[in-house]
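Figure caption, in words: inputs first, then the predicted bound structure.
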Amino acid sequence: MYSIGIEGTAHTVGVGIVDDKCNVLSNVSASYFPKEGIHPRKAVEHHADAIPELIKKALKEAKLSIKDIDVISFSKGPGLQPCLKLTATIARALALKHKKPIVGVNHCLAHVEIGKVKTGAQDPIILYVSGGNTQIIGFTEGRYRVFGETLDIAIGNAIDKFARSCDLGFPGGPVVEKLAKKGKYIELPYRVKGMDFSFAGITTELERRHKKGIKVEDLCYSFQETAFAMLTEAVERAMAHTEKKEVLLTGGVAQNKRLQEMLEIMAKARDAKYFVVPKEYAGDNGAMIAWIGLIAYKKGKAEKHQDTSIIREWRIDAVDF
Ligand code: ATP
Ligand code: FE2
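Bound structure (fe (ii) ion present):
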């Protein structure tokens, strides 16, 4: 059985094909990274241009024809409304034209589940860190629950904002990580409340210090040390609270080596297992959407076309899975 997944919630548009063991037969993408921040209409233009070729390329790499595909999956939310609408329209057109079942997928659930299936984690506390989301998640009593989350902006967004204010380009994560290696510590606001945390204060302080002439390397280093320590502290609390013995790091920011290191050290100290999503599935990608679509389809959850409307704000704890 094969599922094709179309992802397009924000900057990246991707198409992936998986089988029912989550072997990824293809996973191709294109990204729109403007200098001055995302412009939804321009992102849509970029994605609309890219998707037809990506679909062809994904099928070709998988050595399949659209006839071989059992289910069309697409990211239904959360995300930028124009981008979601485009992805949904393309998925519907494909499903109608080729008379295939269709499933709309929750993007956050896809980040979590691709991490689990690709690492073998069974019942982890999940730290989901990306440009739009920062949440501590665990499965209890039949659904995913959010134990902790950012009270303002996501960690990836905070990093990108800071990087942009220092003219480091977009996305900021990889550049900040590199520069941090040459920096030294300065104190920044540290805000954890139970299992929640906040990053807006840090970015404001970083911008203030930058204007004062503090070295960018020191800002990068201190930002990472402070923000990642906050996340690690909150995750540890969630593990203690739930008594779970595994931790899984997933989402675009999961590629950061320093964050990986901090979580791994914490997990070891608690005698817990540490897992991180493989790099190729960390950022937005079509394969993770294909995988959730396939699971849902097998559970008999293919959707009627009139039920495939996008859900712009769709929390993982509102998903029946
Ligand atoms: P979501 O809808 O899940 O929030 P997204 O649109 O933010 O998804 P992702 O690809 O999941 O997309 O995450 C992108 C984020 O990952 C960006 O903010 C980027 O700066 C960050 N990132 C990428 N590489 C690194 C890195 N090495 N260190 C830190 N952050 C990183
Ligand atoms: Fe994402």
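The chain has two domains: 2-110+281-318, 123-279.
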